[in-house]
Design brief:
By secondary structure, this protein is of the alpha+beta class. 25% of the residues lie in helices and 21% in strands. Strands 1, 2, 3, 4, 5, 6, 7 and 8 form an 8-stranded mixed β-sheet that branches.
Length: 199
C-alpha cells in the first residue's frame, strides 16, 4: 500500500488504535491533507512479514545487543523504508540453515553507520536500521532446521524442490503471512519444549 494523504484527525484515530477508515476523515477537510512519509505508523496497513538471512556472526551481534536493533544492507534501502512499527521479522541463520528467532519492528527506519554487523564487502555497514523487540528467541541447540519445514512454505515453492535452498539466499525477503505463521509456530513449539527444564 503506498503512502496516502491523511489529515491530523486520521493520524490521531490510528494512534488510538481505531479501525475506522481514514479516507472518510481525510475527505472532510479537502486541501488540508498532509503527507507523512516515514512515520512508522501502520496507518491502516496490515503488518508485513520479513525473513532476515543472517550469518552466525551477525546474528550473534544482534543477540549481544539484546535484540533491540537490526541493521540492513545498504542496497535494501527501499525495502527497509516500507517497514513499519508492528511488522514482524524472522531470522534464518546461514551455515546452520535454521530458523532462530522472531521479533517485531519497533521504530521507523533510520540511518546509522556505527559499525556493528559485517559483510564480505568491506564498505558495507548495514546503515538502514530499525529498533526491534524480541518475541521468541531460541537457544542455538533449539533452532529449527529449515529443511524440516521448507516444503510447507509457499515462498519456497517458487524454486524447484531440489533447489529449495535458493529461497534463503539474499539478505531480506518479504514472506506471505501464512509462511511466517508456520515458521513461528514451530519456533514457539521448540521454545515450549525447552520450558519444563527451566524450572
Amino acid at each position: 500500500m503506498s503512502d496516502s494523504d491523511h489529515d491530523d484527525n486520521a493520524v490521531v484515530a490510528d494512534e488510538a488504535g481505531l479501525k475506522e477508515p481514514v479516507g472518510q476523515r481525510a475527505a472532510s477537510k479537502p486541501g488540508r491533507s498532509k503527507r507523512k512519509r516515514k512515520s512508522g505508523r501502520a496507518e491502516g496497513r496490515s503488518s508485513q512479514y520479513w525473513m532476515i538471512v543472517s550469518s552466525p556472526d551477525n546474528f550473534r551481534k544482534t543477540r549481544e545487543l539484546g535484540y533491540t536493533i537490526q541493521g540492513l544492507k545498504s542496497r535494501h534501502r527501499r525495502r527497509v523504508e516500507t517497514m513499519r512499527v508492528g511488522d514482524r521479522l524472522l531470522y534464518y541463520v546461514t551455515g546452520r540453515m535454521a530458523f532462530a528467532a522472531t521479533v517485531t519492528v519497533a521504530s521507523p527506519m533510520y540511518e546509522d553507520h556505527t559499525p556493528i554487523w559485517r559483510s564480505a564487502r568491506r564498505d558495507e555497514d548495514y546503515p538502514w536500521r530499525v529498533h526491534i523487540r524480541q518475541d521468541i528467541i531460541l537457544d542455538d541447540v533449539d533452532w529449527i532446521p529449515a529443511k524440516e519445514i521448507a516444503y510447507r512454505l509457499d515462498y519456497v515453492r517458487k524454486w524447484p524442490p531440489e533447489h529449495w535452498t535458493l529461497a534463503f539466499q539474499g539478505h531480506i525477503h518479504a514472506l506471505p503471512r501464512n509462511d511466517f505463521a508456520i515458521v513461528e509456530d514451530e519456533v514457539a513449539r521448540s521454545s515450549r519444549r525447552k520450558k519444563p527444564h527451566a524450572g
